[in-house]
Amino acid sequence: MKIKDLFQNGRQVLSFEVFPPKRDCPIDTIYGTLDDLAALKPDFISVTYGASGTEADSGTFEIASQIRKKYGIESAAHLTCVNTSEESMRQHLAKLKELGVENIMALRGDDEPQEGAPDPFPHASDLISFIKAEDPSFGISGACYPETHQNSKNQIEDIINLKKKADAGCEHMMSQLFFDNDMFYDFLEKARIAGIDVPVEAGIMPVVNVKQIVRMVSLCGASLPPKFTKMMQRYESDPKAVEEAGVAYAVNQIVDLLSQGVDGIHLYTMNRPEVAKKIVSAVKDLFARGDA
Ligand code: FAD
Predict the structure, then answer these.
(1) In the structure, which protein residues have their CB atom closer than 6 angstroms to any atom of ligand 1?
(2) What pLDDT does 53 receive?
(3) How far is the CA of 108 from the centre of ligand 1 (A)?
(4) How far apart are CA 141 and CA 78, in angstroms?
(5) To the nearest whole percent, how much of the chain has pLDDT over 90?
């Protein structure tokens, strides 16, 4: 099933993101995590590609395939395109097809393009056009940035580029993590005015330790509202309290987002099912199940 079809009739979607095991761990170590996440009945699970210190394709495709086959849950394989040739992209698509993966989260990736070498995929929109031309049966998702992508001069430029992504065939978007819902609402309003009418899921990351938040903010530039910073400062010397406060903050964000009618919530699980479980058990009855 294409991910875009999960959103029909106003249904609010819950999805999870996982990353493949690190290079020195066997791929099977992910299945304990997935057993627990699958029990929470998300609408789909996406699997990152080349992020978190893993090798480019260390199991992303296989895990996305098993999510469908073993757990009967829809999946999306992330795929990055910068510095990739058309031929190797063709091979990736053939592999995904062979494994029965139906949805691709099409991304540029964070690497710098190699100097002097022509790059067939300088932007995610180039990958999306390529997939559409090669095999239109894939469902295609893309990333969006409520606080503007770091390479963009300003939000208007970023949203104009995002529209190119939608026009190229991106059918569904998942947002970068954010901690200030008002920024997401402001971004979404502008995206809709720009004519981007695909479902947009809000990316939520429960912060469960202070080191993680420092790292995430330096990577993606998410701004921290004063109430969030205050909370972290108050509990930083008590890891259990930080986790409890981080989960409560994420739950509050989700309650607000769902009641404002967002299309869906994409939970960055960080492969921590116990944290996802706390969040899902607090909000699971709030998801509108269609015709809302
Ligand atoms: P693009 O859409 O290409 O955008 C990048 C920049 O180029 C932006 O400034 C944009 O405005 C501009 N731009 C876009 N299209 C055009 C155009 N046609 N013409 C001119 N300018 C344009 N990274 C990984 O390595 N692996 C992952 O699994 C992964 N998963 C992610 C999941 C989510 C939900 C998100 C939000 C990000 C993820 N990333 C992942 C990070 C992502 O690769 C980086 O944020 C990367 O820097 C941008 O990727 P993109 O697909 O958004 O790029």
Answers:
(1) 48-51, 78, 80, 107-110, 123-125, 143, 149, 151-152, 158, 161, 164-165, 174, 176, 203
(2) 47
(3) 5
(4) 9
(5) 84
For tokens 């079809």, name the residue.
5
Structure tokens at 128: 């999306």
Q: How far is the CA of 163 from the centre of ligand 1 (A)?
A: 13
Q: Kindly indicate the confidence band of residue 116, based on its pLDDT and cuts at 50, 70 and 90.
A: confident
pLDDT number for residue 28: 86
Is 243 catalytic? The answer is: no
With bands split at pLDDT 50, 70 and 90, how would you rate the model's confidence at 113?
Answer: confident
The predicted-structure confidence for 210-259, as pLDDT tens digits, reads as follows 888 888 888 888 999 999 999 999 999 999 999 999 999 999 999 999 99
Residue in 17, 74, 147, 171 annotated catalytic: 17
